[in-house]
Amino acid sequence: MSRPETIRQRSAKHGFTSIWPSAENGFSLCRRSAEHGFTPAWRSAENGFTLIEMLVALAVFSLAALALLRLEGATLSSTHELDRRTMAQIVARNLAAEVLTDPVAPTLGETKGEEVNGGSTWHWTRAARRIGDGVAIRIDIAVADEAGQAMADLTLVRRAQ
Length: 161
Description:
Blueprint: H1 7-13, H2 51-101, E1 109-117, E2 120-131, E3 136-144, E4 150-159
Family: Belongs to the GSP I family.
InterPro entries: N_methyl_site, Pilin-like, T2SS_GspI_C, T2SS_protein-GspI
Organism: Sphingomonas colocasiae
């Protein structure tokens, strides 16, 4: 009496082969070779990722994205502050250039004024006083923004006359 034909034998007779790992397909379930990826028998690369693995990966990615967004916000804030300070320095240097190129020395004491530069109004204060034996004048220039916050300071010395 012969053994009945198995499903695999019938499938092979009609040209179908099994895609599952088996000894008939070249490797055993217990021991897998490097050629087949060292993965457990119940899990192969063809199965893809599980839902839990995808959720963990998405959580890690979202944490990294949130950190980058916070960094971007801090960068924009500090860039705006540096832009304002740079513009205040430009106003202070323009005032210094006027004082140094004027043939007449500035009046001693404190002088206040406003300048419009870079689309903003800047308030400045210039304090001039004699130093040493009176041959030179020290000039302190302070520039503040529209809110009155000090943004730039500059000190220079020029000949009294």
